[in-house]
Design a protein that fits this description.
Layout (H helix, E strand, L loop, with lengths): L1 E15 L3 E8 L3 E7 L18 E8 L6 E10 L8 H17 L7 H12 L7 H14 L21 E4 L2 E5 L9 E3 L1 H12 L16 H15 L4 H8 L3
Parallel strand pairs: 3-5
Antiparallel strand pairs: 1-2, 1-4, 2-3, 4-5, 6-7, 6-8
Helix pairs in contact: 1-6, 2-3, 3-5
The structure holds zinc ion (ZN).
Length: about 250
């Protein structure tokens, strides 16, 4: 048996055996793991609110040889999403981060850049301010997974967009110029291409003071979600919920 203590983000829990819970957690040192938290559903004393999705914790767990699940002994809360007001939109954004991480990360594969990205966006995900962190997270996850196409030149002919819109479609990766666009493609506006470029060059704090209403860079979010769903080969429930906000 090997005992570990590691920074981790809680992604999801499932009830099992009446009083226990299976917990999916993204640890900084060992990547995504699943553990069993004994009696966590019955007694909230041991884990308190520490198993809420997207809680940043210091997790103590034990790995046993030839066992898929680690034994989760305790989670000390470092930062809880519940320490700030939670409205429906913020809860939806938090669910989006958790679902994307759960579906995207391979097990037992440390991904420190993804861990740091998630901590940074969580800090900026406030009631009434979700569209910057959701957009920032969506684009950066694509890049860190190696799924982000170039945003300056047409994938087909290599021409620079240079102030023209770029076109994306659900069937394939890459952005196309107006001449090479697929008939069913959608546009990324020149303004959104500039925004994407800034997102890849600057920390989220550099953009946090700006106004981010729901319609800002909505095309970028549609692009990011479509690309994620294509690579994951499934629909993201939380992405659908995000698209319904404010309608
Ligand atoms: Zn082209």
């Amino acid at each position: 048996m090997i005992a570990h203590q590691a920074e981790a983000l809680i992604l999801r829990t499932w009830p099992v055996h009446e009083a226990d819970q299976i917990v999916s957690l993204f640890t900084r040192d060992q990547g995504k793991l699943k553990g069993i938290a004994k009696s966590s559903a019955k007694s909230r004393k041991r884990f308190g609110g520490a198993l809420e999705p997207m809680t940043y914790v210091l997790a103590s767990y034990v790995e046993k040889p030839r066992q898929e699940l680690v034994r989760l002994d305790s989670c000390e809360i470092l930062t809880s999403p519940l320490s700030d007001p939670v409205d429906y939109a913020r809860a939806t954004a938090l669910a989006f981060f958790a679902e994307v991480l759960e579906e995207t990360l391979p097990d037992h594969d440390p991904q420190d850049p993804v861990f740091r990205l998630t901590l940074a966006v969580l800090e900026h995900t406030r009631a009434g301010h979700i569209w910057l962190p959701v957009t920032y997270f969506g684009l950066w996850i694509l890049r860190l997974m190696g799924w982000m196409p170039g945003i300056t030149h047409c994938t087909v002919c290599g021409r620079a967009f240079g102030g023209d819109p770029a076109y994306f479609q659900s069937q394939s990766d890459g952005l196309a110029c107006p001449d090479d666009r697929h008939p069913s493609s959608r546009a990324l506006s020149p303004t959104s291409l500039v925004t994407a470029d800034r997102i890849f060059r600057a920390p989220i704090t550099a953009m946090a003071a700006e106004e981010w209403p729901r319609n800002r860079a909505a095309d970028l979010r549609r692009f990011a979600i479509q690309a994620l769903e294509r690579h994951l080969e499934r629909r993201l429930r939380s992405a659908h919920a995000l698209s319904q906000l404010g309608q």
